Amino acid sequence: MTISMPAPDPHILGRRADIVRAMQAIVPGEGVVSHPDGLRPFETDALTAYRQMPLAAVLPETVAQVSQILAWCHAHDVKVVPRGAGTSLSGGALPLADGILLGLSRMNRIIEIDYANRVAVVQPGVTNLAITKAVEAQGFYYAPDPSSQIACSIGGNVAENSGGVHCLKYGLTTNNVLGVELVLMTGEIIRLGGRHLDAADLDLLGVVTGSEGLLGVVTEVTVRILPKPLQARAMLIGFPSIETAGRCVADVIGAGIIPAGMEMMDRAAVGAAEAFVKVGYPLDVEALLIVEIDGVDAECDHLAAEISAIATANCAVSLQVSQDETQRLAFWAGRKAAFPAVGRLAPDYYCMDGTIPRRHLPHVLRRISELAAAHGLAVANVFHAGDGNLHPLILYDANQPGELDRAEKLGNEILRLCVEVGGVLTGEHGVGIEKRDLMPEMFSETDLAHQQRVKCAFDPALRLNPGKVFPTLHRCAELGRMHVHKGQVPFPELPRF
Q: Are residues 333 and 352 in the same domain?
């Protein structure tokens, strides 16, 4: 896979000192990072195969500062890349050599918790888990729970429309965000949505959620908080093959049962997770299904019996139901730690993210194994089985010549396979740069042109996060608009290591 970013504008690079001084005037003290040593932590995100040093990193603390930064950059033709906690797995926050990296980590306050309306109002740098921690004493929680929830920020969750293990029943970020404050590239501050459940106008909030920093910078988020279920139980179900586990998933959903969570790990991932957290996972199974059910006791008893019967019909070889909250959390601990645990299996891994119709799980998982063998690589599968959101972890060693290229080619083939069976390129990690050049596999030129018209409506000068999502970024005038601006520069190779 060839990954490239816009070539740096030498005119902007020549103005670097002036740009840094302008930013320091807006964000004084330690809010502007310009020394190469200080910029190192910002040169990549969790997609660590690529690095690019930003022109400077600017770390505002207020909405007014964000507005001033964007307005200045708009007036002086400087590109801006928004960044949350840097946990992106698609290169969405990869910096530009001739652009400002706008880090929002210092905007980390919980502004208000409104239990009567069951919402929390937070700044974008608040971590996902911190929202639940802030409300759990009153019996509430925030439902979307990515594996990186201890570190990932809510602003980044909005940008990528993040999911998590409990999103099968309770929805993705877009289903749990009620409103945002958004700063446009011009510096204008707008609000979309609010504390009400549904807006009466165009669903611009839905457009912004998952827009990957291309449309504006989120500076405040109003999220839905939910009462904690009265009862929750986790089931560990082992299967003799990935195919039988996949069929069980399809049969459970087909029976009209929507568990709170439904996750699967293959033998490689189970072994790594058990070695990492030692929670008692069975090591003699080819696939392990973790199913969580919640509600009142009678409901949980009924669902546990129904799921057990379906699992038995699909050749399950082991089945455990958590007996208390400590055991339930232990069952989940291995799944939550699966990504770092897989680091025991190889020096590096490449985390993919594609979504498929559930009925195709057995076929797709079998094909992934065949494709991996053809490329001479191993794959550990950890994924949200209930909604068909796959996360194949391609194992490789970056120190071995050619292995990264083979891993990327295998990743491309897996994503093409997802599209072929009626799925999509991403379920929650976003397109970023990782999947950008695969967008034509899923969308026609007309589709992409209409998507870019939305980009032009918010950012006509194409200064926000350029080089991401769209394989070719056309001038807005070319898309039928009246704006005429400097054209897109060529795309050379981005430095890799």
A: no
Give yes or no for a contact between 476 and 460, defined as CB atoms under 8 angstroms apart.
yes
Over residues 233-257, the pLDDT tens digits come to 999 999 999 889 989 998 999 999 9
Does residue 492 sit within a domain?
no
Strand partners, 114: 119
Average pLDDT over residues 479-495: 42
- The pLDDT assigned to 489 comes to 34
| Residue 248 maps to a domain | yes
Residues 301 and 394 in one domain: no
Distance CA 71, CA 190 (A): 14
Please give the single-letter amino acid code of residue 397: D
Answer yes or no: do 239 and 335 share one domain. Answer: yes
First to last CA, the chain: 14
Give a yes or no: residue 454 inside a domain.
Answer: no
Q: How far is CA 156 from CA 162, 163, 324, in A?
A: 8, 12, 33
How many Cβ atoms sit within 10 Å of the Cβ of residue 324?
9
189: CATH = 3.30.465.10
pLDDT band with cut points at 50, 70 and 90 for residue 497: very low
> What residues are paired with 288 via a beta bridge?
238, 265
> Domain ends where: 437, 464, 479?
437
Query: What's the pLDDT at 472?
Result: 86
276 and 375 co-located in one domain: no
Confirm whether 307 is domain-assigned. yes
CATH of the domain at 26: 3.30.43.10
Question: CA nearest 167: which of 195, 197, 147?
Answer: 147
Residues 6+ apart with CB under 8 A from 395: 342, 345, 346, 348, 349, 377, 378, 379, 380
Tokens representing 421 are 């069976």
Range of the domain at 396: 346-437
Q: Kindly state the tokens that stand for 326.
A: 């400590």
Q: What total number of domains does the chain contain?
A: 4
**pLDDT confidence bin for 16, thresholds 50/70/90:** very high
Supply the pTM of this predicted model: 0.91
Residue 487 pLDDT: 38
Strands 177-183 and 189-193: antiparallel
How far apart (Å, rounded) are the C-alpha atoms in residues 19 and 325?
54
